[in-house]
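Weekly modeling sync, notes
Attendees: S.R. (lead), two postdocs, one rotation student

Agenda item 3: backlog of single-chain predictions. S.R. asked that every request posted to the team notebook include the full sequence so nobody has to chase files. The rotation student volunteered to paste the first one in as an example of the format we agreed on. Action items at the bottom.

Example entry:
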Amino acid sequence: MKIITNIIGGIGNQFFQYMAGYALAKKLGAELLLDITAFNEYKIRNFELGNFNIELKYATDEEIAELSKKRLFGRTYWGEQKLSFDFRQIKKSAYIRGYFQSEKYFENCKDDVQKLFAFKDLSFIKHPELLEQIQNTNSVSISIRLGDYVGHPLLGGLCTKKYYENCIKYIKEKCPDCTFYVFSDEIERAKEVLGEGNFIYMNTESWQEDLYYAQNCKHNIIANSTFAWLSAYLNKNKEKVVLAPEKWFNDKPKTYKHIVPESWVKIPTK
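Predicted structure, as returned to the notebook:
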């Protein structure tokens, strides 16, 4: 039996797609195979799962063609429908395609995440003294997604200046002596969002550094970004406080309510 999961997008999306396939394959006792052929045309992001402690097996063109056929009977292709995490209908070899942005998809193997998504090596760390500082203080990561989110009809304009003010106020009540570490795809513009304050702006050299430094913070303030979500999810602090926007998309679909885990705190964006 085989489960093929389609992989596309940035590392946050790749995480969710991999874990959905992994959980389904584990449940069925099936072999997990990845379809990464979309990256032949998609040049915005690279396939990055090879950075982690994951055993990667790839589907052949023939396997993809066979299982991704849309059949009237003997269905093997399953496309995500409005973030529905019910895989109970799948009982045999299947091809799955979607974004799967919820831990509900992999509830049966959440304990495997930390092992699977540990970096194979940490040679990307360029500032070990900063990492030590993060690990030994009441550090709080702040994720600010700008770049492609500015003006985006679905994702843009949600994590406002007011949202970050609300988050900072909340976290300071829990942790008065905290230090904020700011991660952004446009660090200079991020300074305009936050203004003056006790912020350390992270001029990192890679997404690996951003992810690793942020997940090592004691607490996390995230944007409506799967990359930021992943950094907070990989945070091993058992007493972590994770703040997320109460609204993840601009179109307000009720089916997206499971993106933010129940243990995280949803903060108003206005």
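Discussion: group reviewed the output briefly. Residues 187 and 203 are 7 Å apart (CA to CA).
Action items: rotation student to repeat for the remaining queue; S.R. to check formatting next week.
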